[in-house]
Amino acid sequence: MSFKDLPPEARPREKLIARGAAALGDAELLALLLRTGIAGKNVLQLAQELLDTFGGIAGLLQTGVDDLKAVKGLGGSAKRAELTAVLELARRAMAERLKERTVFDSPEAVAHYLQLHIAGRAHEVFAVLFLDAQHRLIAMEELFRGTLTQTSVYPREVVLRALHHHAAAVVLAHNHPSGGVEPSRADEALTQTLKAALALVDVRVLDHVVVARGLSLSMAQRGLL
Length: 225
Fold this sequence. Notes:
Residues 103-225 form the MPN domain. By secondary structure, the chain is an alpha+beta fold. It folds into 2 domains: 3-92, DNA polymerase, domain 1; 103-218, Cytidine Deaminase, domain 2 (3-Layer(aba) Sandwich). It is built from 9 helices and 5 strands; from the N terminus they run αααααααββαβαββ. It has a 5-stranded mixed β-sheet with strand order 2-1-3-4-5, sandwiched between helices. It is elongated and about 65 Å long. Helix 2 crosses helix 3 (43-54) and helix 8 (155-164) packs across helix 9. The model has no long low-confidence stretch (mean pLDDT 81). The protein has helices at residues 12-19, 26-34, 43-54, 56-60, 65-69, 77-100, 107-119, 155-164, 185-199, and strands at 125-131, 137-145, 169-175, 204-212, 215-218.
C-alpha cells in the first residue's frame, strides 16, 4: 500500500505541504521516506513498526544498513540506502554544529552527538572528541572497543591522536551497552590516567561522557574530574 491508498487527510505529503513539516508526527515523516508499505501493512504502519523496533527516532538514528536489512519491508537496497543516507546527514549536521560553536555552550548537543554515534552499539566503544582552543570540535575518533580498563585503553595512543589533531582539549566518551550510564570505578580510574597523560602535552580533559540508548551522564558535572 502506498500514499495513494490512504484517505486524503491521512496522506503525509499533502499534510506537510498544507501545514508544514512540524505538523507531522515521527511516523508520518518517516513514511515520506519509505513511500510504500508491504502486503497487509500500509506505509504509515511500516513506519511506526520501524520506530517501535528501534526505540523511536533517536534509536533509529543509531542504526546501520545491516540493522535495517533485518526489517521486513526494507529488504530492497534502495529503501535502505535512502534511509541510511538521511540518517548520516543527521549525524553530519550535528557534527557541523559542534564545529561551528563552543562545545560547552551546548552540552546537550554533545550528548545528542554521542547518542547518534555510539550509544546504540552492541559492544563498548571508547571515543575521543578532539577540540581546538575555542573548544570547537575538530574531529571525533573511536579509538578502542571492548571492555574498557586502564590496560585496554592506551594513553599513549590517545596522546598521539591529540597531538595529530593539534587539540587543545578533549572530551572522552564511551557507551554502556547494558543500558545504564553510572560510571564504574574502572571508568573513574581510566579518566584520571588519561587526564594525567594528556596534561603532559598541555591538553585538557574537559569531560568524560557515558552514554546509553536515550541516556547520558557527564562525569564533569558529577565532580569526577
